[in-house]
Amino acid sequence: MTNANPTYSSDNYGGEPIKHPQFLGAIGVSRIEITPPIEIFSRSWGSSVHDNASGVHKPLYATCVMFRSLDDGKEQFLIAADLSFWKSNQEEWDIRSEILRRSRLDETQLLLHLSHSHSVPMTNLVNIDQPGGGLIPAFREKIISSTVESILRARESATESCLSWSYGTCRLAVNRDQLILTETGPTTIVGLNPSKVADDTLLVGRVTDTQGNIKAVLVNYACHPVSLGGGNTMISPDYVGEMREVVESEYPNAICIFMHGASGELTPRISYSSNTDDADKNGKEIGFAVLETLVGMIPAQQQLAHDRIEQSGASLGHWSLNPDPADCGLRVEMVSVKLNYRELPSLQEIDAMIAEEKRGFMVERLQRRRLLRQELGENDGRIISFPVWIMGNSAMVALNGEAYSEFQVLLRKRFPNMAIAVMNIVNGYFSYFPSKHAYELPDCYQVNVSFFEKGCMEYLVNNTEHAIEKLVAAG
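Structure (tokenized):
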């Protein structure tokens, strides 16, 4: 029912000001190349028939963004690396712990986040006996040393800056849970399901110095970097490389950082291609959407508000820019959630399946599953822990798995006045976190490879919501 006698206050009279979620701190950024030699073992798809790359499509990078609180000097570091995923958490910890040791950082200070390109050589030593596998240790060392160097450079380059966030849209991502009917009945393939609405949210963060110069652009978007598939023989950051080039061509003094969102069921319209031009087309689509969002943003630490009526043929509402000081708060909280396992095959059962399996792609899938299954032990579940950063009136949620996009959709609905950046595959990798709906699909890949029972994603959302509320209240 409409209120027949609305009331007005100074808070809403004339309309709410238009402004961005912001954080003011000392911010530094640095990027170093980590591309391995093409002779390294590069068969990252089960369907691939090549062992080594034929060339490099675009270079791979490790990029560091450092955030230092102006209140208490707290330092937090985000590393965005053009890497795929971890086959085991031990593999990830071997690399991250060495980065922490050499950088003299506490574990709570660092987010090691992977772009998830599927056209990047793996770092697990299980492949060391494969053709070119002997180059993997040197690749790992290059990742570690380059990341450490980027941390040092980011710290040295840090100056007082404002991080402002704005939501935009990009329509590249499509739902990939495709139901089809086969001779044996209905099944779900990892394809395209355009009838299902996909989350098109693009979150752009702009870092500006005190003179208003843009020094970094953060891009948080949920879409699997699988423009290129098993037929591609080039080392590639997938669409991320071209996206960066598009943004940096317009802002040549800025570094563009990709933050891979909750994309468990999302893929580009053109996926699994053998042609790197398709990755570039996808990158252009995101890059142009980023530029559109940036152009529409209000200057740092300002807001657009109604200030007067200008009399013309009509009474015109005049809106002007005025100061909107950014929040300096920087707080960190760990979310710890006990998730129950589904019924899982034992290591002995997986070994038996590997021994009997003749199809290369299934052997690859089973080997990945064995490495992760080995870490789980024989318990009925495990505690999943991941960090949440609150910076001003924005939040970074760093998942150590692959959540469905509903995870970020729900969080953003619950905190409509904040910028919520969600990242998959940060500080380790456990499993997919599918939505409840996915568990009802026949033979859904993400459910089949997930270790956790139905409702795991929704439970993570609820606990993350509580952590954000706690941090906001503390501020």
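Residues 98 and 144 are 7 Å apart (CA to CA). The chain is about 25% helix and 30% strand.
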